[in-house]
Design a protein that fits this description.
The chain has about 750 residues and is α+β, with helices and mostly antiparallel strands. Among the domains are: about 25-45 and about 495-750, Rossmann fold (3-Layer(aba) Sandwich), CATH 3.40.50.1820; about 55-160, no CATH class. Helices cover about 15% and strands about 35% of the residues. The strands form ten sheets. It has an eight-stranded mixed sheet with strand order 35-36-38-37-39-40-41-42, with helices on both faces. Strands 12, 13, 14, 17 and 18 form a five-stranded antiparallel sheet that branches. The chain has a four-stranded antiparallel sheet with strand order 1-2-3-4, with no helix packed on it. The longest helix has 18 residues, at about 1-20.
């Protein structure tokens, strides 16, 4: 009987397809579509060449060579003179092939030389090493002379490209230890308390007596440079929450296993560390009022001034609405050197930077106080802002390098070229006083730079999702281009038929702000057909997620299109790396997920492209994206019709403490429950597929199971796939991807998968 119904269903579907207009989706979700989805990745392999330049610099920093990989395993060596601004083949490859043939008695091709390395001799002459043979190249006529000995490999130190990518780490804490700088005293922790001993004496003195196992003093203290005082950290233990997981099908035994791990959740008591000041001469604690650092989420970056006049540290308030550098002097008097307070949140995990300039009593401080993330120069004696270092309607993405002597900063910037996509990464340099802003990169794309060892030059590689990499050599002093190095060859990728993502922007909910995204189409795209639209979502406020760099293949979004869909990715309001106002939409409002902007974006895209059928919109995502995907079905069922949610943090009270309190705030208020997929499960309309890994240590699997419980109580239909032994993102495995594809074929195309 069931087979008869299926047969009649197939006949009825076929009849509808025959009667439907030419622009219908007939034929989508077929076996051929599935096969194409499985092989689209392979079609993109080894189709793009000259995508990167890895330089090997001469000792004087004036020249470098690199190898280009070419089709069919071919290669070429390129020599660049950075001073002269020239680029050419490093040697006559045909002559080299001939010389190698004579030396090795084996045939050689000019484009398959198997060059091991090039060596810049002391006299500046280039030496080529291949197949354990070495040849000196005459710079006048490129004639080759065989050498008796192969030059030694450069040392590991010489191979390191000093300054590559200009990485810079925030200044570390002041030195920490038991013994005073003058060597006269030692502080130890014993029985949860602190003891001071004068070195050379057998007697030590108890400095504290109130320590206990749950509220103790930590050994290893911060001594003032003059050895007169020290700061110790007192720890007040927080909650110890355990999450328990059952492994149903362990590989090494028949019976299930019980696992547990530490996992604080929003609202739990966190461990508190507070600095305490001690006077060595009096052997007593100096009281320090903690008004400026009450209720900490964290205290870190502990720092004594070189003249021992004050001790400072970075204080992050619980709830993340205050971030400040707190200082106290030897009398215990406190003050704020730098202070940011907000009614929403301070993005402490992405947008904090401090750098002390002790010689000049200054501090470099990162802040969004202007509405954009920028750098400020602060007087550490007064706490006054001496000047903004950067300013404008653009933002600092991160600091690359600080030169205290030259008083200059190198940094990454977003939206600094207003005519370009604001998410593109650019590089710049500026003086501490805010003068001399120099843009080092300019090409329309997102950039990555690699400096020469002496930082006089840098290689700039930039691309877009719809443009293969462009590689240039530029001068660091003014950012001017010296010579073009490469433009990636993607002709074979174009010939494969695989379509690259298309960039698209539209206005957001305020009618003013541009919202950016990309559109993926299948290889057999037909503008006359209608395609359901599937959104790949991740709306975590900690970042932005629409791809910006070129890649031959963009994974699951690109593969899904082959089944008869158009797939989109969008960064709506509430995600990161735009203005402060853009980001603040997420404050205590993670459930918003930028949906008003996403829906407007898709409507605008469909208005320009009638092949996008936005009466059939699906959505999928994992982790925070899993929360978002299910949320679409609960809060916007008029637009979204089907959702696949993998390992979602469906209730922000159930997920890890740091991520959820960062955006949803503390204390845990009613807004947590109001935005929960669990408490709103009864609103479900449309189709829903849930995935969960039973051993997920990132998001408590109970978060998904509580959604399941609520859906059952509300008598809602849904699909659930539990992956035994699976961790976070288990739905992204081969089985999960197949189930997700089938789900969307059934839900949006209205046909049974024909794999």
């Amino acid at each position: 009987m069931r087979s008869d119904r299926r047969r009649w269903g197939v006949r009825f579907s076929f009849l509808l397809a025959v009667l439907a207009p030419v622009s219908s989706t007939w034929g989508q979700g077929t076996k051929a579509d599935y096969e194409r989805a499985d092989r689209v990745f392979r079609l993109t392999q080894n189709t793009v060449f000259k995508m990167a330049v890895t330089p090997h610099w001469s000792s004087d920093g004036n020249r470098f060579w690199y190898r280009n990989s070419l089709p069919q395993g071919a290669s070429e060596a390129v020599l660049v003179d950075a001073v002269k601004g020239t680029r050419a083949l490093a040697f006559d490859h045909a002559k080299m092939a001939s010389a190698l043939e004579k030396a090795t008695k084996k045939p050689r091709k000019a484009d398959h030389l198997d060059i091991d390395r090039l060596h810049f001799g002391d006299d500046g002459v280039l030496v080529v090493v291949a197949n354990e043979k070495a040849f000196k190249i005459d710079p006048k006529d490129e004639s080759l002379t065989a050498l008796d000995k192969v030059p030694p490999e450069p040392s590991a130190a010489a191979r390191v490209q000093a300054g590559r990518r200009g990485g810079f780490r925030r200044r570390a804490d002041s030195p920490r230890g038991a013994t005073s700088p003058d060597g006269k005293f030692t502080v130890t922790a014993r029985d949860h308390n602190l003891w001071l001993k004068e070195n050379g004496s057998d007697k030590d003195v108890a400095l504290t007596t109130d320590g206990k196992a749950t509220d103790f003093y930590e050994g290893g203290v911060y001594w003032s440079p003059d050895s007169s005082h020290f700061v110790a950290l007192r720890h007040l233990k927080g909650d110890e929450r355990k999450v328990y997981l059952i492994e149903s099908s362990p590989k090494d035994q028949l019976q299930p296993k019980l696992h547990n791990y530490d996992y604080l959740k929003p609202g739990d008591r966190v461990e508190i560390r507070k600095p305490r000041l001690f006077n060595v001469a009096t052997k007593k604690e100096v009281p320090v009022t903690d008004d400026l650092f009450a209720n900490p989420w964290s205290t870190e970056e502990f720092h004594w001034s070189p003249d021992s006049s004050y001790f400072s540290f970075l204080f992050n308030q619980r709830g993340h609405q205050a971030l400040r550098i707190v200082a106290f002097d030897k009398s215990g008097k406190t003050r704020a050197i730098a202070n940011d307070e907000t009614s929403t949140f301070v993005d402490y995990s992405n947008k904090t930077f401090t750098h002390y300039l002790d010689k000049t009593n200054e501090l470099i401080w990162m802040s969004e106080r202007s509405g954009w993330n920028h750098l400020y120069l602060i007087d550490t004696k007064t706490g006054a802002v001496k000047n903004p270092i950067t300013k404008g309607d653009w933002l600092v993405l991160g600091v690359e390098r600080v030169d205290d002597e030259k008083r200059q900063i190198w940094f990454r910037a977003g939206a600094i070229h207003p005519e370009q996509d604001p998410y593109y990464v650019h590089y710049a340099r500026v003086n501490f006083d805010g003068s001399g802003l120099t843009l080092l990169t300019e090409g329309d794309g997102t950039h990555q730079i690699d400096y020469s060892p002496d930082r006089r030059f840098f290689i700039d590689t930039y691309s877009r999702v719809d443009m293969p990499p462009v590689i240039e050599l530029r001068r660091e002093s003014d950012g001017k281009k010296i010579v073009d190095l490469e433009r990636a060859d993607a002709s074979r990728l174009a010939a494969s038929g695989v379509r690259q993502p298309e960039r698209f922007k539209a206005k957001g909910r305020d009618g003013k702000t541009d919202i950016y995204g990309v559109i993926y189409r299948p290889t057999n795209y037909d503008a006359a057909k209608k395609y359901p639209v599937i959104e790949h979502i991740y709306a975590g406020p900690h970042g932005a997620f629409v791809p910006k760099r070129f890649s031959p293949f963009h994974g699951q979004p690109q593969a899904i299109t082959e089944l008869g869909f158009i797939v989109v990715q969008i960064d709506g309001m509430g995600t990161n790396w735009r203005s402060r106002a853009f980001h603040d939409v997420a404050a205590k409002n993670v459930g918003d997920a930028g949906f008003p902007d996403r829906i407007l974006w898709m409507r605008a895209a469909a208005a320009q492209d009638p092949s996008m059928d936005i009466t059939r919109v699906g959505i999928y995502g994992g982790s925070a994206g899993g929360q978002n995907a299910m949320g679409a079905m609960l809060f916007h069922p008029e637009f979204y019709k089907a959702a696949a949610a993998d390992c979602g943090c469906h209730d922000n009270r159930m997920d890890k403490i740091w991520w959820n309190e960062a955006w949803m705030g503390w204390p845990v208020g009613p807004h947590y429950a109001e935005q929960s997929n669990v408490t709103n499960a009864h609103k479900l309309q449309g189709k829903l597929l849930l995935f969960v890994g039973e051993l997920d240590r990132n998001v408590d699997p109970a978060s998904t199971m509580q959604v399941v419980n609520a859906l059952i109580k509300a008598d809602k239909d849904f699909e659930l796939v539990v992956i035994p032994g699976g961790g976070h993102g288990a739905g992204g495995g081969r089985y999960g991807q197949r189930r997700q594809r089938d789900f969307f074929v059934r839900s949006l195309l209205g046909v049974e998968p024909r794999r």
